[in-house]
Amino acid sequence: MDYASSGVDIDAEGKAISSLIDALGSSVRKAGQKGAPVPLPGGFGGIVEFGDSRLVLATDGVGSKLQLASQTGWLRGVGIDCIAMNVNDLICVGAEPIAFVDYIAVPKTDPGVHAELGHSLAEGCRQARVTLAGGETATLPGIVTELDLSGTALGWFPKGGEVTGERLESGDSLIGLPSSGIHSNGYTLVRAVLERSGLSLGEGVPFDLEESGRIVRWQNGGVTLGEVLLNPTMIYVDPVIDLVLACREGTGPCAPEDIKAIAHITGGGLSNLLRLHETLGWHIDDPLPVHPEFSWIADVGSVNSREMHRTFNMGMGMVVAVSHGVSDDVTEWFSDRLPGTRRVGSATDSGKVTHADSSVVFDHY
After folding, report:
1. Which pLDDT tens digit goes with each residue over 62-115?
2. How far apart are CA 197 and CA 300, in angstroms?
3. d(Cα 247, Cα 84) in Å, to the nearest integer?
4. Which secondary structure element, helix H or strand E, spans residue 212, and what is its range?
5. pTM for the whole structure
6. 318 near 240, Cβ under 8 Å?
7. Which of 10, 98, 16 is nearest to 57 (CA)?
8. Which listed residue, 11, 50, 248, 319, has the most CB atoms within 10 A of its CB?
9. What domains, with CATH codes, occur in the chain?
10. How is the chain split among helix, strand and coil, in percent rounded to 5?
């Protein structure tokens, strides 16, 4: 099985996005005006001018993970997912998230569902340290057949404080931050594998959950397969933005210019690293442990290693590239705040993403 055969073709999606961007034309706001675009090719958020500051916007949804959540009735994690997918993109350009707005679409109103979503969004805002500044709820029978949830996050950084990847050099170190599970990508393939397995979401997990360094938000013992598959997305504001702020203030483990690039490992998997620089490559020589649910998906779905690393985070939800000379200090700083963090590789001159698993190679995003 692969992502395309289950319904999502990443290459076709990329072509569609390129067509959309080509048709948009230039901004009506010009350089020097508030709201004028700040170019950032391949970036994870859209940057605009705002006087001596820069505002950053990111928008995303939970995707088909919502279908599994609706089946189980467990919606307490999806608001966290929605906020995480947005604020994690913002921090990739060095922006501190400050506010969020949500969009909820349903086929019919249900106060119980909206209450669960409210609790989940509130917890996501707490973890991301953002204000829920508003939102929209639409009841759309005939158009929407089941719950959909998306949102937009706003962040900022001082002018000149962006993290763009422009200063990257071959030999810079890659520090991997562990994920909390599948996060919110690849669920079309997850649902296809679940169907093939013949298991229900309420059954016990068919794999061993015990592994060192695992970051979980559910309790061990009596855990169901649904709980594992729906484990909320990790929000990386703490510690990544804390690192950026500390370094700007002179109290961190390195200078601001030593933080070269930050990548959110979402749809596209490790190929996301190619968005950070036009010519450099990346080699993952010491990958983080693969969570057991990924091994289960690969086994049940007969999904090859390259496809798994292009569809899922495989245990590493974010990568921070720093100057080689400060990598030990930064890794120690992260590890004190997020156990399981470690150096996983380095920037290269190859122009490709390569891996300790020789079958995992990407030459385009």
Report:
1. 999 999 999 988 898 999 999 999 999 999 999 999 999 999 999 999 999 999
2. 6
3. 23
4. none
5. 0.91
6. yes
7. 98
8. 319
9. 36-158 (3.30.1330.10), 173-355 (3.90.650.10)
10. 35, 25, 40
